[in-house]
Amino acid sequence: MMKLPNLKERKVQLSLGASALFIVFLFLADAFLDPFSMQIFKLCAINIILALSLNLLNGFTGLFSLGHAGFMSIGAYTCALLTMTTAQKEMNFFLKPIEPFLAHITIPFLPAMLIAGLVAAFFGFIIGAPTLRLRDDYLAIATLGFSEIIRVVFTNLQTITNGSLGIKGLPRFTTMWWAWGTAVLTVVLIVSLIHSSYGRAFKAIRDNEIAAEAMGINVFRMKLLSFVISSFFAGIGGALLAHHLTTIDPKQFMFLKTFDILLIVVLGGIGSISGSIIAAIVVTILMEALRFLDGPLNFIFFTTPGVPGIRMVVFSILLMVVILFRQQGLMGRKELSWSMIDGWIKSLRRIGKRS
Amino acid sequence: MDLSTFLQYVANALSLGSLYALIAIGYSMVYGILRLINFAHGDVFMLGAYIAFFLVSSALMPWWVAFLVAIGLTCLFGIGLERVAYRPLRDSPRISIMISAIGASFLIENLAIVLFDARPKAFKVPDIFSTVVNIGGVSIVSVSFFIPLITFALLGILLFIVHKTKTGMAMRAVSTDQDAARLMAIDVDRTVSFTFGIGSLLAAIGGIMWSLKYPQLLPLMGVMPGLKCFIAAVIGGIGSIGGAVLGGFLLGIIEIMTVAFLPDLTGYRDAFAFILLIIVLLVKPTGLLGKNQGEKV
Asked: Which candidate in A166, A199, A298, B100 could, as Cys together with A194 as Cys, close a disulfide (CB 3.0–4.6 Å)?
């Protein structure tokens, strides 16, 4: 048998190889995917960002927040208002003119997206400072409340958000490279955050708040930090989503949106980055692939008429089944690693030998 | 604003407050006993209204029988829901059981959209509830009288059950300490089922009365009242029945009166409850009538 280089070296090589393959794959996808598949492919990346930012809170800091849709909408609206040209704004705001100070701002996508994230993070700070004193379910309901307040405010601020009419015709900035580039960057940032001393403090708080406090961790500050970072990425995700869909209105950011992201996080495993990534891709593709369920179904002997909504029933049942029978989700708190894949291959071989 | 308009608003506020109170009691009792936000409670409320609607429009039975049957079926549904979605997770982390509750809520909503159709349905209101009563120049729909009356009657019965019967004593024991209650030979599972039954029963009555007042049924009609009533329960002090009633009335009155006196804020109506919630949580996290519980290591 060929002598393998030592394990660590091999892992680095494998990782480099996988990254190279991934980049090749992105180029291929960019060149060959048809427009419809491309839409879904981009959505996968956006959902990865959103799922990771929620997982940072729910999975790594143990804060159960249900306010994600609110921060996404802040990011989406900020970015949209910053990137649109004056003419586009005038076209949208026909009911009441836009606030004059917003009418003439037009900046490129990258700074707009960053500002969107920062504004969301700022609101995360304002909202987090009072609510993070609460725990568990109270925190969940308070964050949910805030996200509803944001939605109601957005519906009523006619001169800033165009109210319930929403904003249409945003420039289609979210290309595949923007979406996946941001997603990869987010993964790198969140992984390094979790492995830093801050990340260890987050996990200590998740596992036992009182013990963490006794070890000298400033629990409130750490919780707030985690909340602000999570809001930042939610804002970025919202901005990308806005320029991906090219229309936004307050109704998109109802609680249902948070539920979608929560579904991904729970299925992937609360507290697993790779789990979230895999689940984000699988769920996004399934959401589209299962669209046929809403149309007429042909069961050879009989055909059911199209019933819109079956798809969401399937997803709700999926969530219930996972939470009842496999609470840890796909990955639990584990991460996908080369040693894990190695283990799989070995056990596969063992099965192969036995038969 | 003249007096008669004001009185109309008062009647409105009282009936809305009673409805909120009824639903809030269900939240409060379930939370008190299981420390669980039953996110699906608002959907049980919706279900009660829909079952009543189908029974009434099938015209197989007089409306009051239909209402009673609907209340009974919804009650059974609530007990079944606890058994399927919450009981297997009772010893799991609280986040799991909360996710299960959210999942159950979405499942019921989506099933309702598929089964009942997303288009609004008009509830057929029996004449006795829709007659307009004229008292000294103030015309009020009779249902606005019935709702607070029924609410207070139910509240009386409920307080009697909780404080004077053996089952009520078991409920209080389980909510104080589940393990100790079990040691005292209390059947915890049965007590929890009973609590869910009562909660769902009240939600069903609330749902039917809601449809008598606002006769338009939608699969998602339970979401907003559900959230608001949970908030009412938190404001009053969750786990306490009196608190839930107080919170419900407070919320109903504030909502109607703000719209009455500050019409400019009408668009923000759905946000009032949340703003109130956040203020109360910050000032007195255990709610107005809640007891302060020390934190356990």
From this structure: A199
Residue B83 CA, chain-centre distance (Å), reads 20
Question: How does residue A186 score in pLDDT terms, banded at 50, 70 and 90?
Answer: very high
CB-CB under 8 Å, B227 with A148 = yes
Residue B289 lies in a domain: no
Bridge partners of residue B132, in order along the sequence: B141
The residue type found at B43 is: D
- pTM attached to this predicted model: 0.87
List, for chain B, all residue ranges whose pLDDT scores fall below the cut of 70: 1, 291-297
Distance CA B58, CA B247 (A): 37
Whole-number pLDDT of residue B95: 79
pLDDT digits (tens, 9 = 90+) for A101-148: 777 888 899 999 999 999 999 999 998 888 888 777 788 888 888 898
Q: How many whole angstroms separate alpha carbon B105 and alpha carbon B111?
A: 10
For chain B, the domain total comes to: 1
Whether residue A95 lies within 8 A of chain B, CB to CB, comes out as no
Asked if residue B165 belongs to a domain, the reply is: yes
Distance from CA of A341 to the nearest CA of B (A): 28
Helix and strand totals (H; E) in chain B: 12, 4
Report d(CA B26, CA A266) in Å as an integer.
27
Chain B interface, Cβ < 8 Å to A? 35-37, 85, 88-89, 92, 94-96, 98-100, 102-104, 106-107, 110-111, 113-114, 118, 223, 227, 230-231, 234, 267-268, 270-271, 273-275, 277-278, 281-282, 285, 297
Assess whether pLDDT exceeds 60 at residue A2: no
Q: Nearest C-alpha of chain B: how many angstroms from A131?
A: 8
On whether residue B17 sits in a domain, the answer given is yes
Of A130, A155, A323, the CB nearest to B96: A323
Residue B295 lies in a domain: no
CATH classification of the domain holding B194: 1.10.3470
Tens of pLDDT, residues A205-246: 999 889 999 999 999 999 999 999 999 999 999 999 999 998
Domains in chain A, ordered, with CATH?
A: 35-354 (1.10.3470)
B110·A324 Cβ contact <8 A: no
pLDDT in tens, A298-326: 666 666 666 677 888 888 888 888 888 88
Can you give the residue range of the structural domain that contains B151? 3-131+139-283
Q: Which helix (H) or strand (E) holds B121?
A: strand B121-122
Complex ipTM value = 0.81
- Give the angle subtended at the CA of A56 by the CAs of A50 and A58, to the nearest 5°: 95
C-beta separation of A101 from A67 below 8 A: no
